[in-house]
Amino acid sequence: MPGFLHNTCAVMRRETGRITRQPMYFVLMIVLPVVSFAFFALLFNQGAIRNIPIAVLDQDNTTLSRKAVQMIDDTPTAMVAYGIQGMDEGERLMREGRIMAIVQIPAFFEKNILSNSQTHLENYVSGTNITVNGLLSKDIQTAVTTFTAGIQLQVLMKQGLTQRQAMAQLMPVRFDKHVLFNPHINYGYYLSPSFMPMMLMIFVVMVTVFAIGTELKHATAREWLGTGNGSVAAALAGKVLPITAVMFLISLVMLVINFKIVGTPLNGSLAVILVGTLLFILSYQSISVLIVSLLANLRLSLSIGGGYSVLAFTFSGLTFPIMAMWEPMQWVSKIFPFTFYTDIFVDQMLRGTPWVYSLPDLCYMSLFIVLPLLCLPRLKRVCTEEKFWGRL
Fold first, then answer.
1. Which sign does the torsion angle of CA 176, 180, 182, 184 carry?
2. What is the CA angle 87-89-92, rounded to 5?
3. What domain of life does the native source organism fall in (predicted)?
4. What secondary structure letter does DSSP report for 180?
5. Helix axis angle, 232-256 relative to 270-295, nearest 10°?
6. Which residues contact 290 (CB under 8 A, 6 or more apart)?
7. Distance of alpha carbon 305 from alpha carbon 354, whole angstroms
8. I need a labelling partner for 138 at 20 to 30 A (CA). Which of 122, 166, 237, 243 fits?
9. Tens of pLDDT along the chain (392 residues)?
10. CA distance 282 to 369
């Protein structure tokens, strides 16, 4: 063991010198991650989707129709940006991407209401963006429902009922919705803790593949192995540990941006998040070592590693729930440490879940760390045989 530690420290000193001499390490480990974190912090600074432009075709143009338009415009999501004269104009605006919905108020709208005849409003939503579609439809429907209830309330009160009696008759069953962990539907709380770790993951993979791949590309792999006194385990540990340390420090910057700038709440254990972050970095470093050891090609390893990293977001369940996926795809989601890390983030940041419930996710991520042990013989071979050197 003392010999292993001595050899590992020797490789770490060599790797530290390489990191300080090559600007690419500085770019991949510090500049690009911090820039990407700052970008997402600014992107989600507003938090919630607000003031989506819509158009209104008011074919009645009466006091009640204008009141309905005002109530729609007062909703958080919808902003009445255009008063159009016909559906052709609305269709043109929607095709140009200038509006996301059209609300049509028919002629005789006020007359039908005052004569107790049924009338209707038409809502045409683009539907190209599922999130915007859902929010706009919900807010517009809420505004119209509130408008309708107000009219019925006035009618019942004119019949001699008190406001309480009218409300009880109008809404015999009252439905109250309670959003427990993100009551303001803040997208910053939901997406920043997802996109920032995704960027961290991508740069961890890239810099780890780059660190090993350049040894093969520049035919310095034998020298690297020799610094570790021929121990491939010591050589690998000394190679990746400086990168691990720097990326963990960068991950702390990510957490500070999340908590202090984006304002994501921390309802659970910070210690669990820190341990999970360290395991997250180590797991993707392990996967990177496996990729570059098997392919022994810097360019191809970067491509495969990048593709694997990007797929992680698709299978994380953040956009389409894992429980709703086809069962084989649910199993595929388990081959990405990102899936387990996002569970930890959501549980500890938003839900305030007791730390013990995050232990399975921590254990799953720990399993990925054994991957380099499976490829040590292969790594030693590519480091000692010249036919693997000099590839792009």
1. positive
2. 110
3. Bacteria
4. -
5. 140
6. 371, 372, 374, 375
7. 34
8. 166
9. 678 899 999 999 999 999 999 999 999 999 999 999 999 888 877 767 788 999 999 999 898 889 999 999 998 888 999 999 999 999 899 998 899 999 999 888 888 888 878 888 888 988 777 778 888 888 888 888 888 888 777 777 777 777 777 676 666 666 676 666 665 666 767 777 788 999 999 999 999 999 999 999 888 999 999 998 889 999 999 999 999 999 999 999 999 998 888 888 888 899 999 999 999 999 999 999 999 999 999 899 999 999 998 888 888 877 777 888 888 888 988 999 999 998 898 889 888 889 899 999 999 999 999 988 889 999 999 988 888 887 66
10. 6
SS3 state at 52? strand
Residues 100, 53 contacting (CB under 8 angstroms):
yes
CB count, 10 Å around CB of 91? 14
Q: What is the largest CA-CA distance in the chain?
A: 96
Taken in order of first residue, the domains within the chain and their CATH numbers are 2-45+196-388 (no CATH), 52-170 (3.40.1710.10)
Q: Is 328 exposed, middle or buried (0-12, 13-18, 19+ CB in 10 A)?
A: exposed
Question: Do the beta carbons of residue 284 and residue 209 sit within 8 Å?
Answer: no
Task: Tell me how far the alpha carbon of residue 207 is from its chain's centroid.
Answer: 22
Task: Answer for the pair 337, 278: CB distance below 8 angstroms, yes or no.
Answer: no
Report CA-CA distances (Å) from 154 to 53, 56, 207.
Answer: 31, 26, 67
101-105 and 122-125 beta bridge pairing: antiparallel
Please give the pLDDT value at position 117. 80
First to last CA, the chain: 36
E strands present in the chain:
52-58, 78-83, 101-105, 122-125
CA-CA distance, 48 to 16, in Å (whole number)? 43
Q: How many CB atoms lie within 10 A of CB 335?
A: 13
Residues near 7 by beta carbon (within 8 Å), at least 6 away in sequence: 227, 228, 229, 231, 234, 235, 238
